[in-house]
């Protein structure tokens, strides 16, 4: 059963990150599971479930949340905001960068978790210039594939610049990203220079190691032990950052899958690894964003 599960995760990862062909996914899963019905059940157990319960209620009275629609970086923007309702001091700002499915309810929940941990949080929807994140995840992944990456980086830098000037903040802004968003945080660290005070990437494919010299922000990088695709890029990236004298902490969690932090995916989520990574993440951010 473990071998079947691991192979199913590999097939699903190839679908979500490479070919995006659902017919190929169904054919391969049916061959693996033995029937179309079993294949559909297997896919559902691996895929993130939009119906999964949030850890933090969107109406939690401890928080103030909002959704803004406007313009950022010269293009349409959408962002979800979360912050403690009654902070006792100025707080650091954190951008939460979404996965390749866009600004989903799960990413909004992560934003609320960070807000309860003591930050002001902005979760941009980088699909806003294309109309915003759709409910159909396959469509969202297709849209991510045609996204203007330079524009997304420009918008992220604009969010950082604005957050750094807010009187409610400490003037320091960090970023946390997951999967596609983890890759984005790495690239934002290259592009943003000293404007980014801290970057944390969860299982995000890394840039060319030659870019390491351009990084200013301290980085924390979380990798899944069974995620060979991402780790093949992460290991050279970490080595290059260290060789360039950059501040980097990298952790690999043995025996867990890509997206181990996403509790809306029954087969991928690993509670122990997620809790440890989260504790490291919040401590890292407080150390670099608090006054």
UniProtKB/TrEMBL annotation:
Residues 79-287 form the Dienelactone hydrolase domain. It comes from the Bacteria. InterPro entries: AB_hydrolase_fold, Dienelactn_hydro, Dienelactone_hydrolase-like, TAT_signal. PROSITE patterns: TAT (PS51318). GO terms for molecular function: hydrolase activity. Coiled coil: none annotated. Gene3D superfamilies: alpha/beta hydrolase. SUPFAM superfamilies: alpha/beta-Hydrolases (SSF53474). Keywords: Hydrolase. It holds the Pfam family DLH. This is Alpha/beta fold hydrolase.
């Amino acid at each position: 059963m473990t071998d079947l599960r691991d192979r199913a995760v590999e097939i699903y990862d190839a679908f979500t990150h490479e070919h995006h062909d659902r017919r190929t996914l169904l054919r391969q899963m049916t061959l693996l599971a033995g029937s179309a019905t079993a294949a559909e059940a297997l896919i559902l157990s691996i895929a993130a479930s939009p119906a999964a319960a949030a850890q933090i209620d969107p109406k939690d009275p401890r928080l103030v949340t909002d959704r803004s629609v406007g313009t950022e970086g010269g293009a349409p923007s959408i962002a979800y905001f979360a912050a403690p309702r009654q902070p006792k001091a100025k707080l650091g700002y954190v951008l939460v960068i979404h996965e390749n499915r866009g600004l989903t309810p799960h990413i909004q929940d992560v934003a609320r978790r960070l807000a309860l941990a003591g930050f002001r949080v902005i979760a941009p929807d980088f699909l806003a210039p294309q109309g915003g994140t759709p409910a159909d995840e396959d469509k969202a992944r297709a849209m991510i594939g045609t996204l203007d990456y330079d524009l997304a980086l420009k918008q992220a830098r604009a969010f950082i610049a604005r957050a750094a000037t807010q009187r409610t903040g400490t003037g320091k802004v960090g970023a946390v990203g997951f999967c596609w968003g983890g890759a984005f945080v790495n690239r934002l660290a290259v592009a943003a220079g000293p404007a980014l005070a801290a970057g944390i990437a969860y299982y995000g494919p890394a840039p060319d190691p030659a870019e390491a010299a351009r990084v200013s922000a301290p980085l924390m990088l979380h990798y899944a032990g069974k995620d060979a695709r991402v780790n093949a890029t992460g290991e050279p990236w970490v080595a290059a950052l260290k060789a360039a004298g950059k501040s980097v902490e990298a952790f690999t969690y043995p025996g867990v899958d890509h997206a181990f932090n996403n509790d809306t995916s029954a087969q991928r989520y690993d509670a122990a690894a997620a809790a440890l990574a989260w504790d490291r993440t919040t401590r890292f951010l407080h150390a670099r964003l608090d006054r």
